[in-house]
Amino acid sequence: MTLSLVLIVLGGCVSSEERAAQKAELTRKVKVALDKRVYKISINRMLPMRGSSKNVSYGYSVEVRNDSLFSYLPYFGRAYEVPYGGGKGLSFEAPILHYQETMTKNGSRQIGIELTNEEDSYTYHITVFDNGSSSIDVQARKRESISYSGEMIFEN
């Protein structure tokens, strides 16, 4: 009885240490990716300005590679001025005109990215937490704002 209790307690300590090590490794990966400005956020939920939030299937993402943003996002909302046929929406690649990053009191990073393509001008406000969870707010000049949430993904 005493031996099994000791094994259970020791097993709990080991898994707690493993969890702490995994958390530290994840925090390190997030920091390295953000510092290099090479990261990808997989989207799992969207929140349009009108209506309720919606789950998003796998495949939608925002990716930053040095001086470019690759946006593959679904869009629901009001567009004030779009090209015939609807245009690209929020699925495009564009060079980043302005990139600003600040650290918050709770340890998350807030990133502001400004860019323009042939259809519109955009501002992406990205918040990334130590565990890789992220929120993205997209503001466009010719469309209503929309928000997304997701997780940072890492290539192995």
List the SSEs and their pairings.
Elements: H1 2-36, E1 38-48, E2 54-55, E3 61-65, E4 68-73, E5 90-103, E6 109-116, E7 121-128, E8 133-140, E9 146-153
Antiparallel strand pairs: 1-2, 1-3, 1-9, 3-4, 4-5, 5-6, 6-7, 7-8, 8-9
Structural notes for this entry:
- By secondary structure, this protein is of the alpha+beta class.
- Helices cover 22% and strands 45% of the residues.
- It contains 1 helix and 9 strands; from the N terminus they run αβββββββββ.
- The chain has one helix spanning 2-36, and strands at 38-48, 54-55, 61-65, 68-73, 90-103, 109-116, 121-128, 133-140, 146-153.
- The chain has an 8-stranded antiparallel barrel with strand order 1-3-4-5-6-7-8-9.
- Strand 3 and strand 4 (68-73) form a beta hairpin.
